[in-house]
Specification:
There is one protein chain. By secondary structure, the protein is α/β, with parallel strands linked by helices. The chain folds into two domains: 147 residues, Response regulator (Rossmann fold, 3-Layer(aba) Sandwich), CATH 3.40.50.2300; 134 residues, Rossmann fold. Helix 3 packs parallel to helix 6, helix 5 crosses helix 13 and helix 8 crosses helix 9. It is elongated and about 60 Å long. The structure holds alpha-L-rhamnopyranose. The site of alpha-L-rhamnopyranose has 14 residues, from helix 11.
């Protein structure tokens, strides 16, 4: 008992000592490694955040107290983006906490954002679960002097300061149809297994895929269904099994989400359909390696999510510090990625996606 009390006192003393040096910017940079990964619901996340921000009040005064908000937690894609965001934070001497809800849901995201606005953080970098539903919240943040950079998945203009596109949206749509056509040998039934039905990024890409399918070159492909796995592994897996049962002649599942593509490839393997049904879309090399090797998903595409998170924080910091206003034509330096300019439509472009296959997948580790 006494021993416990002693350890507790010791811990308290350490905490007090730590809190005492919490105000200086260097310390903030040092604590970057201790990223907040909030696994609980947005409600709990919000409560915790309030406590945290109270403790971190000196850091707030010093500025550079940003929050990276993914669509949901527990998704390696967003975890990798956070790795890049923390790298940028270290270089810039700012603090980036990583906070989100466990499910990809706009209402939960709005609750979290409201709480972060109330805490007067210095900037928000958000991957949105709904482009329109988040506009009033984004607008409120901007009106309170908190810049809003969306990345990966956009809030509509009006609810954001700038949006960072991972690649040209049309190109992301087109490349997935090209890969599907390759795998189907030019003809047959294809289906799309997406994230949530409101996901701004997936919906935009699907729109471009449908347009691309109108091209005479793809007249042999028939899009038989679009289904939603909500960026949840189990739901995506079940939807993929359902597609194979409903469409026994299905040749390709295109999944423009890193969660859906890995779950679909696993479903194809488990169903013993490798070589008959092919999976393609957008995935991370580390999650897809085994399916490339098994032949369930011979090729897929993606950009580097770490670079996207890195660029989001450089952009946010450039705006939050007043280095740029965040308007079209503004140019700034984003560390190792070089210089970027905001385009006329208020977006920034990271760069082209990479196509992964057995030829190059082992060159990548994320
Ligand atoms: C999932 C998410 C994310 C998307 C990637 C490709 O991780 O839906 O928003 O960009 O897939």
């Amino acid at each position: 008992m006494k021993k416990h009390l002693l350890s507790l006192l010791l811990l308290l003393a350490m905490l007090v000592a730590l809190a005492a040096c919490g105000g200086d910017t260097d310390t903030d940079a040092d604590t970057d490694a201790e990223t907040t990964t909030t696994e609980e619901s947005a409600d709990t996340a919000a409560e915790e955040t309030e406590e945290e921000m109270e403790e971190e009040a000196p850091a707030d005064e010093a500025g550079g107290n940003y929050v990276l908000v993914p669509k949901n937690l527990g998704n390696p894609y967003f975890d990798t983006a956070n790795v890049g965001a923390q790298e940028a934070a270290g270089e810039l001497g700012v603090t980036v906490t990583y906070q989100g809800s466990s499910v990809a849901d706009a209402t939960e995201q709005i609750q979290l954002l409201n709480s972060l606005i109330a805490q007067n953080v210095d900037g928000l970098a958000i991957s949105a679960n709904d482009s329109d539903a988040l506009v009033p919240t984004g607008q409120e943040a901007i009106d309170s002097g908190i810049p809003v950079v969306t990345w990966d998945s956009a809030i509509s203009p009006g609810g954001r300061t700038v949006h960072i596109n991972q690649a040209v949206a049309e190109g992301i749509g087109d490349v997935q149809i090209q890969m599907a056509a390759d795998l189907a040998g030019g003809e047959g039934q294809i289906a799309i297994l997406s994230a949530t039905s409101t996901a701004p990024n997936q919906n935009e890409w699907i729109g471009f895929m449908e347009e691309e399918l109108e091209n005479p070159e793809y007249s042999g492909l028939e899009l038989v269904a679009t289904v939603y796995g909500d960026d949840e592994d189990e739901k995506s897996y079940n939807e993929a099994i359902g597609l194979m049962q409903t469409y026994p002649d299905l040749k390709v599942i295109i999944s423009p989400t890193t969660v859906g593509i890995a779950a679909s490839a696993r479903a194809v393997q488990d169903a013993g359909r490798v070589g008959e049904v092919f999976v393609t879309g957008l995935g991370t090399p580390n999650q897809m390696r085994e399916y490339v090797n098994s032949g369930a998903a011979p090729q897929f595409a993606l950009w580097n999510p770490a670079d996207l998170g890195y660029l989001a924080i450089y952009t946010l910091n450039a705006i939050a510090t007043g280095e740029i206003a965040g308007e079209p034509g503004d140019t700034f330096e984003a560390g190792k990625l070089g210089s970027y300019t905001i385009a006329d439509d208020g977006t920034i472009l990271l760069g082209p996606p990479t196509i992964f296959s057995a030829d190059n997948i082992d060159d990548f580790d994320f």
